[in-house]
Amino acid sequence: MTRESRHGTLLKGLACLLALQLPLASAQVAEIEKATNASLLWGPYRPNLYFGVRPRIPKSLMGGLMWTRVEDYQSVQNNFRHTCEQHELDGYGWDEYDVRSGGRQTIHDPANKIDITTEFIKFPGGEHGGSWGARIKGTPRDDASPSLRSTVIWYNTLEGLGSLEVAGADTEATGVEGDVVLKGQTNELGDFDITVTEGKGKHPHTGHPSYDDKPLDRTLVHSGQVPEEALWQVKAMLFAHMKGQIDVLVPKYGEDNPPPPAQVYTIQHLPSKGNMHLVQKVFEGAFEFDVIFSSGSAPTKITSDDLTEQIGSVTSAFSSRFANIFKPQPPFLKERYDEFSKSLFSNLIGGIGYFFGDSRVDRSYDPAYEEDSEGFWEEAAEARSRNQAQLEGPSELFTAIPSRPFFPRGFLWDEGFHLLPVIDWDADLTLDIIKSWFKLMDEDGWIGREQILGAEARSKVPEEFQVQYPHYANPPTLFMVITSFLDKLDAIKTDTSSEKLQQEKSYSMQLSNREAALQYLRTLYPLLKRQYFWFRKTQAGNIKSYDREAFSMKEGYRWRGRTPQHILTSGLDDYPRAQPPHPGELHVDLISWMGMMTRAIKRIAVYLDEEDDAAEFAKYDEAIVRNIDDLHWSDKAKTYCDATIDDYEEHSLFCHKGYMSLFPFLTGLVDKDSKRLGAVLDLIEDEEELWSPYGLRSLSKSDEFYHTEEDYWRGPVWMPINYLAVSQLLNIAQQKGPHQTRATQLYTELRKNLVNTVYESWKETGFAWEQYNPETGKGQRTQHFTGWTSLVVKIMAMPDLSGERVRDEL
Could you tell me the keywords of this UniProt record (predicted)? Predict the structure, then answer.
C-alpha cells in the first residue's frame, strides 16, 4: 500500500469515526438540554416584581405577591407593594439563591412597618418540570404595633390555552376556611394544583357590622376572566375592583360609621373559573403561609412539611457550595464579607428572568442610517422621526438583568459581564442563557442591544428609547464568556474524572462531557461568525479615503448611532468624543472590542478544527493590534485615543484620558512586555488622572469635562471596567516581565479599594449601586444594581498577592 493510499484510508476512517460521534454527541446534548430545561423550568423569573413566579414557557401560568399596611385610609394605595420601585424600601433581595434549587429573599418595608421573607424551593421529578413551594412570612418591624394590620394578596394568572379554577368553589360562603386550592391544566404543564395554605397568624376582628358579611379570619378569593393582554396589569385591576367594593360599602354604612381600612380594602369573595385568581388574607401581627405548586406528573404531592425540610437543606447546600467557589480571599476574611458576597451573587442570579413578547424595530434601512455624510446625526434624527417602527416577534429571552426596579429587561453588553460570575457557579445555565440571546439574532447577524419584549416591559421604558435599530451595535461581551468557557474546558482537559467535577456535574454537564461541549460550540459557531462579520461590515471605519497611515486599510471601526452628546451604542453614553461628529471617526474602544472578539472566535475555530477560519482570524488579529498602535496611539499624550478628521481633512487624535484610553489594555491586547504598558500603568496609578481611593475614575480628574453635564461616564467609578482592569493587572502580576512588580502593587491596592467601596455602601444603604462617587465612595444613580456590580464577588475571590509584593520588595 502506498503512502497516499494509507493516508486516504486513514482519512476515511476518521470521517467514519466522526460520523459515528456526531449523532452520539447530538444525543448527549439533547439529553443535557432536557435535564437543564427540567431543573430550570420554574423560578422567580419575573424580577420586576418583589416576588413573582413563572415557568420558561411563552404563555402560561404566572403568580405574584402584593401587600400593604391597612391601618389608615390614606397610605394604602401608595404603599401597596407589587413591582420593584426605587427609594421605597430599606433594602430587599435574595440572601441566598440557587437557580436550580431555590433560596430566601428578605424585604425591609419601613412604610408598611413590616419585613417580608419569601422562600422559594424547587422539587424535581415528573414529566413537566417538577413542583415548587413558596413560604411567605411577615414580621412587624421594631417601630410597629404588635397588632399591626396587613393585607396580603397572592394571585395566579393564566395566559394561553388551558384551564384554572378554584376547587370546591362556594360563591355563597363569606370566605374560605382552611386551604385554598386551584386546579389547572395546560399542554406544557399537564395537570397541576396550587395550594395557598391557611397558614399561621392572627386575624383582626374589627367589631364593625361589615365584618359579618366579610369575616377577616377567612381567606377571600376572587376569580375572573380578563383580556389576556391586560393580565400583567393585575394591580391596576385590583384597585379598580376595590374601588367598586368601597363604592358599595360607604353608602351602606354612611360617612359617620365607615368600615375600618382592614375591612374596606378587601376583594369580593367570588371563587370560580377564570384566567385571573386573587387570594387575599388579612393579618394582625406576624404571619406565615405557603403557596405550593404540585405537578400532576410528580411522584408525590408536596406538603408544607416537605417545604420546611427542603428549606433547611437548600440553605445548607448553598452555603457549602458558595464557600468552594466564591470564598473571599485575604484580606476579606471576616464573616461580614461572606454575607455580603452571598447577597450580591444571589441577587445577580435571583434577578434572572424569562421574557416573552413583541418588540419595536425600525427596519426601514433608511440611507441616512449609513451615517456617512457630514451632519449625519441630524439626517439620522429626521429619518427616525419619519420612519414608523414595526412590532416584531414575539420573541423569548432568558437573561439576567441590570436592576430589578429600573432596568428589569435584557441588555446585551451588560449580559456578558453578568455571566462572568454565573459561569463559575453554573456553566450549563450560562450556556443556556447565551443560546437564548443568540436565538434573537436576525439573518444579518444583528441582536438588539436592549430587549424590551412585550407591553409590560415597554411600560418601564420612555417611548423614545423603545425602538431598536438594526445598524446599532453594542459591545460583544458574550464573547468574553465563551472564552471563559474554553478556559474551563482547557482546565479539565486532562482531568475529566476529578472528584470536584463529578460533584459539580448537575451544574456543568457540558464541561464534564467534552463531546457535548464541542457539539454546543459547533451549533453556536455559525451564529458567532455571523455576528462577527456583521460587526466588521456595519461598524467599519474609513481608513483609505483619508490617506491614513496604517498597517491595514481595513481594521478601523466606528460606532453607529452617534450624536454630538452621546454614543449610547458604545455603552459609555456621554464619554467625551470628537466634536463635531465626523464620518471619518475611528473609535478606540470599538477596535479593542473587535480585537477581543477576534481572538475569542479564532480560539473557537481552533477548537473545532476549522483551520482555514482560524488562519483568517489570525490575520485579522495581527492587523487589529498593529492598527491600534498606528491609528490610536498618541506619542504626545502617551495614551490611546479616538481618531477623527480635522479641518485639513487629515487624521487627528482626540484624547480625553479615562476608560477610553485603557481599552486596548482592558481587552487584553497590550502585551506584558509592550513599551506602551508602562504608560498605561502610569495613567492608572496617577491620582490626578484615574486613580481614586474608591476605584478607577471613568474620566481623568484633570480633564475639562470631568463631572460635567450628565456626568454619567465623566468621572464616576464603574465596576465592569474596573473588573477588566483588575483582571488584566492580575494577568501581568502572575507572569515574569518588566512590569510584574508594579502590576502586583496596583492589583493589590485596586482590588482592596473596589471591594471596600461596594461593601461600605452596601452596609450603609442595603443596596449595590450602578456607579460610585470617586470623591466619597458613595453609591449613586440606580439602586439595587446587582447586575455587573456583582462582579465584586469575583474580585473578592481573586488571589491575594500582597505576600508576593512583600517578597519582591525584600
Answer: Endoplasmic reticulum, Glycoprotein, Glycosidase, Hydrolase, Membrane, Signal, Signal-anchor, Transmembrane, Transmembrane helix
Shared domain check, 592 and 685:
no
Rounded to the nearest integer, the mean pLDDT of the chain is: 93
Q: Nearest CA to 519 among 18, 22, 20?
A: 22
Task: Report d(CA 76, CA 238) in Å as an integer.
Answer: 13
Q: Which of 303, 324, 345 is the last residue of a domain?
A: 324
Beta bridge partners of 164: 184
617 and 722 both lie in a single domain: no
Give every CB contact of residue 195 below 8 A, 6+ residues apart in sequence: 179, 180, 181, 182, 290, 291, 292, 294
Cis peptide before 110 (omega within 30 of 0): no
102 phi, psi to nearest 5 deg: 125, -165
CB 769 within 8 A of CB 761: yes
- How many beta carbons lie within 10 A of that of residue 303, not counting itself? 15
Residue 229 has which C-alpha cell?
Answer: 393582554
CA 285-136-80 angle, to 5 degrees, is: 70
**Domain shared by 284 and 149, yes or no:** yes
Last residue of a domain, one of 655, 683, 704: 655
- Which ranges in 659-739 belong to alpha helices (H)? 659-666, 677-685, 719-733
Number of domains composing the chain: 3
* Cβ burial 623-634 (10 Å sphere, 16+ → b, else e): bbbebbbbbbbe
Query: What is the per-residue pLDDT across 263-304, written as a single tens digit (0 to 9) for each?
Result: 999 999 999 999 999 999 999 999 999 999 999 999 999 999
624 and 701 housed in the same domain: no
Supply the range of the domain harboring residue 637: 540-655
Catalytic hit among 179, 288, 370, 573:
573
Q: Are residues 46 and 83 in the same domain?
A: yes
Region of 168 on the Ramachandran plot (φ > 0 left; ψ -120 to 50 alpha; else beta)? left
Amino acid letter at 216? L
Q: Is residue 560 within 8 Å of 585, Cβ to Cβ?
A: no
95 is catalytic: no
Nearest to 680 by CA among 621, 719, 716, 629: 629
Q: Per the residue annotation, which of 115, 159, 770, 804 is the catalytic one?
A: 770
Secondary structure of 378-417 in the HEC alphabet?
HHHHHHHHHCCCEEEEEEEEEECCCECCCECCEEHHHHHH
How far is 637 from 129, CA to CA, in rounded Å?
59
SS3 state at 511: helix
Count of residues in the chain: 810
Residues 217, 629: Cα–Cα separation, whole Å = 75
Active site residue 247: no
Cell of 735: 507572569
Give the pLDDT confidence of 574-611 residue by residue, as tens digits.
999 999 999 999 999 999 999 999 999 999 999 999 99
Give 597-602 contacts, CB < 8 A, sequence gap 24+. Answer: 597/476, 597/479, 597/532, 597/535, 598/532, 598/624, 599/483, 599/668, 600/479, 600/480, 600/482, 600/483, 601/479, 601/528, 601/529, 601/532
Q: Is residue 517 part of a domain?
A: no
Same domain, 650 and 719: no
Q: Which residues contact 761 (CB under 8 A, 6 or more apart)?
A: 767, 768, 769, 772, 777, 778, 779
Comparing CA positions, the residue from 96, 559, 555 lying closest to residue 317 is 96
